[in-house]
Amino acid sequence: MDDKDIETVLRHFIKNVNIGSVEELGSGSINSTFLALSDRGKYVVQSLNEVVFGDHLDGMEHNYRSFTRALEFARKTEDIRLSVPEWIFDSDGRYIWTDKDHTAWRVYPYIKGEQLKCCKDHDTIGIFARALADMHHILKHYPGRPETVIPDFHRLDMYYSSYTDACELCDSSRRNKYCDMLIEENIKYVMGNYISDADSVIHGDTKIDNVLYDSESGTASFIDMDTFMTGSPLIDISDSVRSILCGSDENLDGITEESVDASVEVDLDGMERFIKAYYDACGRVPSEEEKRALMLTIKRMPFELGLRFHTDHIRGNSYFPVKRDGQNLIRAKKQFCIFEALKASEMI
User: Fold this and answer.
1) Are residues 240 and 178 in the same domain?
2) 3-state secondary structure of 53
């Protein structure tokens, strides 16, 4: 995409805007994101992954509108510090615009802040935990139920079925012996600890990559509003913990398929600090039953994501974009190494 293409998109949301420059933001594993510097300010211009969201754009828009109502109510009744992207309406009064090439776009003002890449210190862990607690406080006020945007998201049985289908239908040379063995040896164990559906509205994708923090204002921001769903809040807590344990899913610099196990350092102390900080921010103490269920879910999350990465690698990287072939295999092995470390620990 060149600057003129992004300017054309932006003008569907902001009339007569003129772009000075455009740069690609981050290396997100789903959508393509650009920062446009214009005569009207800084804007994030994002194209939505057609494979992931193409059939569910109306549901995505419905969910965001519902979330904004919940956010407005929560800010009036609770101490909410969290910031979120404020999507901009296009000329038709919609948040998402689809161009002639069937690419879906959205725009929102640039949010100042840095990604919380490191969770080795108490301050960062506390910021992240408070951000998640605020998100859950907001979602308590969500009107109704979210529409499905990613079908079967967090359905481990469906991911395993997709994996077995890929093994039968795709190039067998892309399969990895370590990943295949780990999956087959542990699928029954992980499935046996599967969290049943719950009626809570959850975020669904609370990895640390999705949080920005502005040290000047002291404001944290969740920047991904695409995965609202019903389920157990333990899934959100566990995915946050998973991202603390492994760091950014996108930071693969210097990591090869052979060296990935040496790159994984499971920070159990950081995990415990995050869990305590989260429940402190929520103002409650979890029951022993909830603690046990949380520990089991924490183990499940890296297994689930490793299974998804490995499946996508076998299929030729059709879901998670890569800069070079083999990245999804590295991602898969990284998650499986975390799973093995958690399973070998003294956790339940």
Assistant:
1) yes
2) helix
In whole angstroms, what is the distance from residue 345 CA to residue 34 CA?
41
Measured CA to CA in angstroms, residue 344 lies from 135, 247, 338 at distances of: 32, 20, 10
Listed residues 61, 92, 111: the one ending a domain:
111
Task: Please state, in angstroms and rounded to a whole number, the distance separating the CA atoms of residues 295 and 130.
Answer: 20
Of 68, 63, 81, 85, the residue nearest 129 (C-alpha): 81
CATH number of the CATH domain containing 68:
3.30.200.20
Q: Is the pLDDT of residue 304 over 90?
A: yes
Identify which of 236, 205, 220, 245 has the alpha carbon closest to the alpha carbon of residue 127.
Answer: 220
pTM: 0.90
Same-domain pairing of 287 and 237: yes
Q: How far is CA 327 from CA 287, 312, 331, in A?
A: 40, 10, 6
Q: What is the pLDDT of residues 82-95, one digit of tens each?
A: 999 999 999 899 99
Q: Give the C-alpha separation, 102 to 307, whole Å.
A: 30
- Residue where a domain stops, chosen among 111, 146, 170: 111
Backbone angles phi, psi at 175, to 5 degrees: -75, 150
Nearest in space to 330 (alpha carbons), one of 310, 303, 345: 310
Q: Which domain holds residue 190?
A: 115-344
